[in-house]
Specification:
The chain is an alpha+beta fold. It has 33 helices and 18 strands.
Length: 710
């Protein structure tokens, strides 16, 4: 079969799609990439069905700005007035106010497949868009919606009142009455015989309605209008003016707005060289923050909230204080590191059972570096930054937006507002920056009227703050990176050559040397290079950051470096390699002195202890060949210590023929519970290759026109 058995779309959509050239169809597929997922449509009729689905239409509706929404409302009005086979262009033009030409707006909607013409020129809408947003203009429900609410007896009485005939069943009665009341001439004839005050009542309601004020719902004018269906009583008791009557009464005065001109942004001059310096410093600082967060999580897992795997504000503030960052920087880094699988959530070691608590509580969750973190860090700062940038561009949430304002907003809206914010900024003239944030908020509301104003404002502010921290924007002025990201479109390729070159330039300004002082400090001008920052963090403590970063050496910080396996000669050589001048003597003395005392006392780890009552049995165990594998050493006549965990000691000794038991630190017998079966994680499904929109557009059109039996 070359056509879906029961197509759930307007047939004119398929005819229109089939008549497009590959460039026009490519434009639709690019603007609505969701119709290519999870696997591309195989035929053009399947594409038409996907384009008409409520979910896809809802996502595309987010992309429509104020002029498009205004035109959609006018088209919805046409459908409500009976133009179910498409709204004639002349009818549409007659409703629009001013001299605005709707053709450019219609072309935009056609590029989203949200409106299209049939061969006669009538404009069609997909089923999910045939709503009643026109009520925004003070218009009420149509009689096509109201009449079916009446009983058959009521409809027959209305038919008689209007002097009509025909119709037995309810749908037939509705059609007969609708045919008359949708005719402006017949409505005017009815009003010519109406009681005094009726026309005035209906005209007032048409201009200020659609609801009749309570004080005017009684009396002969209202009662006569109700008997003739020129007014209608809703189940709530409200009396309203039907849409068809309002349109007839307002006549040429009915004008729907169409405002294609966007609000203007006010600009401030911005020195491109200064923007380049500031965006570079911000990008370098963010990369440094990523390394600091990963190191902190590796040292100690970051605790999550108990009932959801998310890091709470207290941990964010503490981490910011520990690494010398702001909470906003930490929040952004955490979200990006999670989105790029640099951080992952794991169960922490559970508390051991005790006599007082034989059943331990469920283990807490902690955030730790994932395996990918080491690989991506070793790939270099540029690769790491590009990965973070790509994740931010398509992130489902806004880390720095007001949570309460954006609650309940879908991921598609969040992504669209983020990318829209940059696009709007990049419309500024080169060498200029944003002068007034309020103007940007107003423009964003105009561009995305489907999003509540408070949520749109919060997302724009959050996106601006995030872009500043990423080095994409500097004080409202878009940097080189912003223009490249906007040019790349909704699907950013972090490995694209043009993006790679810009990122490389951004990260070349990192400080690679430090000035070491006799006061045991090290100062790096600007943002430090990642390797330099890692070296200094390993042996000193950060004190301040800004135009320069300062570290201070102490006995504790130097000892920390030795604890990680370095030696005094190695450390002195590494520091000398990044020093602008010779290392000061106080620092050399401190390092050598700490090295001299490091390791005076050794602490040996003991994983398990074997305690016996019979010295002979303990002696036999100590001499057994299993003792070497367990690392057993005798520390008392009846005590052996092992270098492996107690479970391994138990298993090996039992295998050797002994009969040990497990006891807790307080001597209580530990009863082993049967291990729970673990369910293997399902293997990920192979990724489906999504073709380019252009290639798929050409294939769909070619196969449709070459189908058998055409």
């Amino acid at each position: 079969m070359w056509l879906l058995d029961e197509p759930e779309f307007d047939p004119t959509l398929l005819d229109w799609l089939a008549g497009l050239n590959p460039e026009r169809l490519e434009r639709i597929l690019t603007a609505r990439p969701d119709v290519l997922e999870p696997s591309p449509p195989r035929r053009l009729d399947e594409l038409a069905e996907r384009l008409s689905s409520a979910e896809s239409v809802r996502a595309a509706r987010l992309l429509v700005g104020t002029p498009g929404v205004q035109l959609l409302r006018a088209l919805q009005l046409g459908y409500a007035l009976g133009h179910e086979q498409g709204v004639p262009p002349a009818t549409l033009a007659g409703w629009l106010a001013g001299d605005a030409d709707p053709r450019a707006v219609l072309d935009f909607l056609a590029g989203l497949a949200l409106a299209w013409p049939d061969p006669s020129g009538a404009i069609h809408l997909p089923e999910p868009l045939r709503g009643d947003e026109y009520r925004t203009y003070g218009l009420g429900a149509s009689l096509a919606e109201l009449l079916p609410q009446a009983t058959i007896a009521e409809l027959k009485r209305l038919r008689a009142t209007l002097g009509l005939s025909g119709g037995v069943r309810k749908p037939q009665l509705v059609d007969v009455i609708l045919g008359v009341l949708r005719d402006p001439g017949h409505v005017r004839e009815l009003l010519a015989g109406a009681p005094e005050g009726t026309v005035e009542l209906l005209n007032d309601t048409a201009r200020h309605g659609p609801t009749v004020p309570v004080e005017r719902r009684s009396g002969e004018p209202a009662e006569w209008a109700l008997r003739h269906a020129l007014l209608w009583t809703l189940p709530t008791g409200e009396v309203v003016l039907p849409l068809e009557v309002a349109v007839t009464l307002r006549g040429p005065e009915l004008r729907l707005p169409l405002d294609p001109a966007p609000p203007e942004l006010s600009m401030n001059p911005a020195d491109p060289a200064d923007v380049a310096v500031r965006t570079s410093a911000a990008a370098l600082r963010l990369v440094d923050r990523v390394h600091s967060v990963l190191d902190a999580a590796a040292t100690e897992p970051l605790p999550t909230l108990r009932y959801r795997a998310d890091i709470g504000p207290r941990v964010v503030k503490r981490l910011a204080r520990d690494i010398g960052a702001t909470p906003a920087e930490v929040r952004l880094v955490l979200d990006l590191a999670t989105a790029t699988s640099l951080l992952t959530v794991r169960e922490l070691e559970p508390e051991p059972p005790t006599r007082a608590r034989p059943i331990p509580p469920p283990p807490d969750l902690g955030v730790v570096p994932a395996e990918r973190a080491a690989r991506l860090r070793s790939a270099g700062s540029a690769a790491l930054f590009r990965t973070l940038l790509g994740a931010w561009w398509t992130l489902d949430a806004s880390p720095l937006a007001d949570e309460h304002a954006v609650r309940g907003l879908g991921a598609a809206a969040v992504r669209h507002l983020r990318q829209l914010t940059l696009r709007l900024l990049c419309h500024l003239e080169p060498g200029s920056g944003l002068a007034d944030e309020k103007a940007l908020l107003e423009l964003a509301r105009w561009a995305v009227p489907a999003v509540p104003a408070s949520a749109a404002d919060a997302l724009v502010r959050g996106s601006l703050a995030e872009a500043e921290l990423l080095g994409v924007v500097a004080d409202g002025a878009p940097g080189e990176l912003a223009y490249a990201m906007v040019a790349a479109g909704p699907r950013l390729d972090p490995a694209a050559p043009e993006l790679t070159g810009i990122v490389d330039r951004l990260l070349t300004g990192a400080g690679k040397t430090a000035l070491f002082g006799a006061d045991l400090t090290a100062v790096v001008a600007g943002a430090p290079d990642v390797q330099l920052a890692a070296l200094l963090d390993s042996v000193a403590d950060r004190e301040s950051q800004g135009a320069a970063t300062t570290w201070r050496f102490s006995r504790a910080s130097v000892r920390r470096a030795f604890d990680r396996g370095t030696t005094a000669p190695m450390l002195l050589d590494e520091l000398a390699a990044v020093a602008r001048d010779e290392l000061p003597q106080p620092l050399v003395y401190l390092i050598n002195d700490v090295a001299r005392r490091h390791g005076e006392v050794a602490v040996i780890g003991v994983a398990g202890v074997v305690v016996g009552e019979d010295e002979a049995v303990v002696t036999e165990i100590a001499g057994h060949k299993a003792a070497g594998a367990l690392g057993l050493r005798r520390v008392a006549p009846t005590v052996l210590v092992a270098t492996v965990d107690p479970d391994t000691v138990l298993r090996r000794l039992r295998r050797a023929g002994f009969a040990p038991v497990r006891r807790d630190v307080d001597g209580a017998l530990v009863i082993a519970e049967p291990a729970l079966a673990r369910v293997a994680e399902p293997e990920p499904e192979p990724a489906v290759s999504v073709p380019s929109p252009r290639a798929h557009a050409e294939r769909l059109l070619t196969e449709w026109h070459d189908r058998p039996g055409r």
